[in-house]
Amino acid sequence: MKLEKLKNPLKALADPTRLKILLMLEGKPRTVSEIVDFFILSQPTISRHLSVLKNVGLVKDKRAGQKVVYSLDTQKVQEICLGICACFDCCKVRIQK
Predict the structure, then answer these.
(1) Minimal CB count within 10 Å: which of 33, 37, 39, 40?
(2) CATH number of 3-96
């Protein structure tokens, strides 16, 4: 993965709230209201964070009736992690093992 492709996902991951959302979604898919209940933030604020995560491909959404369920795109997260490691020679040896 080229460095330029890592820029936007890393910016998204730099925000502590978005990182916490991703960690929540790793456990199981959740609706916006489930995520809002965890934070002391408004629903529009959480929706904006989810939009950023979705725009960089870290989160997928699926309509379930009137609700939208968000889930972690594990393949994209793995690509980013491997892309970061590929930037550093010290990590390349461990990836190849």
Answers:
(1) 40
(2) 1.10.10.10
